[in-house]
């Protein structure tokens, strides 16, 4: 789970530290786990199957917890396109990928909110409680689990549209106004004339609505532990 979890999966976090954190979490959680039936007579093939199954569940939980960050990256792309800032892409040292400037702002905002709200602690608590829902070796694929993951992945685009809605609305109004002006003045170069206005109003809207965007992002981040529990519940059911 730590290999794909936000913040811990950063390239800035050394692999040795990531392995040490995984070992520490395992050491702290192991005494609270229920005993594994027949643990004394496990064969090497059964142990390998259990390890693969538990690693798959951990990757799935970490992948579900990153949906919000994927949505913020898409929202940043929407905002950059509407403001005409899609050309200069910045390098995100956390993900190791190029990202538009609004998306980079959204990403670091989400990271700060994740730490400020102590949600990284709650996600580890949710990971520990997931063993009560998915006992070791008790996970299996089901139609309900696949439907739930697909619905959460589809909600990524909904979140991105909701976050970028103010800037997209202002951009639409600017386009509408210049479309009317182009009918009155056919010689006007609508694209060249509207781009500075769109960029200026987009930056103003982005700055004025950052607080509301942060509240919106915080609401989705607070759902991460419950999303992890729901996926674990379906995987164990």
Throw out a few tags for this protein.
237 residues; mainly alpha; two-stranded antiparallel sheet; elongated
Question: Briefly, what is this?
Answer:
The chain is mostly helical and 237 residues long. It is built from nine helices and two strands.
Side by side, the strands of the main sheet go: 1-2
Please provide the count of β strands. 2
Sheet with the most strands?
A: 2 strands, antiparallel
Query: Radius of gyration in whole Å, from Cα?
Result: 23 Å
The average pLDDT score comes to 80
As residue ranges, the low-confidence spans are none
Structural class: mainly alpha
Number of domains: 1
Strand content: under 5%
* Distance between the first and last residues' Cα: 20 Å
What is the share of helical residues?
A: over 70%
| Shape label | elongated
Count of separate DSSP helical elements: 9
Describe this structure in words.
With 237 residues, the chain is an all-alpha fold. It has one domain. Strands 1-2 form a two-stranded antiparallel ribbon. The model has no long low-confidence stretch (mean pLDDT 80).
Annotate the secondary structure layout.
Layout: H1 15-29, H2 44-65, H3 67-83, E1 89-91, E2 98-100, H4 101-116, H5 119-133, H6 143-184, H7 190-208, H8 210-221, H9 224-236
Antiparallel strand pairs: 1-2
């Amino acid at each position: 789970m730590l290999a794909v979890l936000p913040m811990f999966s950063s390239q800035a976090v050394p692999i040795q530290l990531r392995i040490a954190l995984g070992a520490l979490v395992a050491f702290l959680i192991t005494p609270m786990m229920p005993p594994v039936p027949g643990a004394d007579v496990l064969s090497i093939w059964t142990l390998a199957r259990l390890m693969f199954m538990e690693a798959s569940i951990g990757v799935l939980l970490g992948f579900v917890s990153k949906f919000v960050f994927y949505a913020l990256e898409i929202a940043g792309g929407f905002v950059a396109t509407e403001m005409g800032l899609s050309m200069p892409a910045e390098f995100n040292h956390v993900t190791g990928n190029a990202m538009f400037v609004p998306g980079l702002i959204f990403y670091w905002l989400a990271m700060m909110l994740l730490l400020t709200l102590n949600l990284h602690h709650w996600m580890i608590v949710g990971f520990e409680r997931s063993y009560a829902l998915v006992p070791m070796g008790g996970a299996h694929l089901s139609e309900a689990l696949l439907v739930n993951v697909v619905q959460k992945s589809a909600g990524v685009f909904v979140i991105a549209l909701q976050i970028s809605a103010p800037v997209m609305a202002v951009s639409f109004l600017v386009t509408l106004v210049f479309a009317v002006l182009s009918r009155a003045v056919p010689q006007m170069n609508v694209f060249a004339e509207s781009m500075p206005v769109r960029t200026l109003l987009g930056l103003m809207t982005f700055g004025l609505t950052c607080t509301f965007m942060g509240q919106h992002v915080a609401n989705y981040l607070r759902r991460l532990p419950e999303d992890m529990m729901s996926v674990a519940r379906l995987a164990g059911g």
